[in-house]
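Objective 1b: paired records.
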Amino acid sequence: MMDQSRKLSPVTWLSNQPYLLLSLTSLFWATNMVLGRYVSGHVPPVTMACVRCVGAFLLLLPFAWPHLRDDWPVLIARWPLMLALGFTGFAANTVLAYWGLLYTQALNGLLIQSAGPLCVALWTLILFGVRLTLPRLLGIFTSLIGVLIIILRGDLAALTSIEINKGDAMLAAALFIFGIYSALMLRRPASHPLSLIVVTIGAGALMTIPLNIWELTSGTPLILDRLTLVTLIYVIVFPSALAYLFFNRGIALIGPNRAAPFFHLMPVFGSAMAIVFLDEQPKLFHLVGYALVLAGVVVASRR
């Protein structure tokens, strides 16, 4: 009876729902991009990345500790991979992303994020020879068209008015690096998910601390107010601790190439939040874009 109740527990049920986990991940990361751009004048980029990593590490450590004691020999034996995951998934990725948001528009950032599935496919091919199937490739491009329709508000000619700047290059580099993290998760050691994320996010935190000290001592201002505190708490809990747990579990269940198309849900959630919270009126292009994105994600994430 105890085993049956454990199987039916909400946590166990959620941990075996890859599509829901990856959808929630996209929701958390979409709000992270919006908040990161909104508070860019309050919190310096490296400080934002450092607080996010250190805070998530401290939040998850008590829950991971019983598993970490058992998994430590396995994880430390794979220390080069742990360092690589910490660098690509947390340190370099987050620092470059928040830095890029200082210089670019939200429109550019969402367009760049749309290349996420292709970056993951590229690195899984380069590192491990895993190729995209034709249906999966068609699904990615279908959802990508839907993303463009949503972001450009149905006017594809607006692509010609987009200006590329150094912020775009930083966001593209962050996405390119995160593609390596997603691909490397195929070689993760056999350990509890909490043990893995605590070790990798701890490694990422250690890498960001020296950069954070340099940033704060260089005179970059940090404005500690209510907005800053609420934002930092949110990014520690949702885009960091929960989102990475969900993303890692999603990859474990369906693989990186099937998980990556869920990146395309980020602009869907972003536009939906604009409709709900900013009183933006829903238009026909929203419906068309949502339909294409969802159809593409379904096709690309199928077995």
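Objective 1b, second protein:
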Amino acid sequence: MSIPWQRYADEHTRTVDTMTAALLFACFLLGSEIHFPHEKPPDAVGPTLALAALACGSLFWQRGRPRTVVAVTALCTAGAGALGHLLTPLIMGPLIIALYRLALGTDRRTTRFAFFAALTLLAVTAFLADPVGRPWPLKTIGPAAWLLLPVAVGTAVRLRDAYVEAVQARAEYAEESREKEARHRVAEERMRIARELHDVVAHHLALANAQAGTAAHLAHTHPEQMRRILSELSGTTSSALREMKATVGLLRQTDDPDLPLAPSPGLGQLADLTGSFETAGLSVEVAVEGMPRPLSPGVDLTAYRIVQEALTNVTKHAAAGAARVRLRYAVDHLTLTVTDDGTATAAASTFASQGFGLIGMRERARSVGGALDAGHRVEGGFEVTTRLPLYPIAPIAPTAPEPEDRNP
């Protein structure tokens, strides 16, 4: 934030330039009266007034043409030295201001060149046209010191302003990056919740539809089985409502006093998942190879949802009576394969290959660093293969029994 006089100078540049020129004109005339006691003051009032007016008047163009103003003020200052005036800061005032403005608005190379050019001009003029014959230090060291001051100050101010501008630019970029990152995280969270809702709704509705169709088919021939299937249909819809409530609960604010969210499902509930397809007429065989180990929550949920979606697709799109789920544990990854030996119509096959279910499964696998492949098998049916990384969670017990194949 700028201080009041800086704001005034920025808003009233013409007024400030006029006051500066008038003050420097007075200082120029005052400086022309300074001389050593043994020296005779130069009798050149007219040329002195003309040089002072030209040097100070050129300052009105210092903001737009700083190089030209430095050249004019340097020539006027050298002319004052040639008349016999002592080159004090009062006479050099217009040149000092011009050099400061040049250092403030241009690069270091231009400023350095202007400084040495002005100093050379003053020194050469003083040595060649000095009518008084003053000592050489007064002709070189004094002017050099006074001209070096505005160059150093102007360069320092310019560098400071550039630094402040760079800091502000970095702060703006960091703020913009934080906003983009926040929007990206919100979009990712929405996609994750959308995948959860899709998996829950698609799975339970497919099961409910299959159970309802089976019950309608057995209504006249096997009423007892129909009643059992309808009872399981009620459980399917209740489970769907519970999972939807848990998923939608992710959108609640942290200070909501509602019921706690249900834990995320995982491969520990695989038996319940495969068993739920029995009433839909799909027999699922589960085979485990290798030594099971604890999975990270993200990988566990991903594996469960991929199996759920793959079996749901078998129920909806494939005319299959059986499916096989194989879990193969390796040292650093888990390979999950879901296959069926059914057949599908062309439309259903296209939907299964390009629909949102496979897209969601691929996104889930990529989100935990895995990969997913899906396609038709040569011997018939459809196969979904997923490779998920295994992250160390807990040490594996050395006496763990070898897993056996099970058929729920």
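The chain has two domains: 4-172, 267-408. Confidence is low (pLDDT under 50) at residues 345-353, 394-408.
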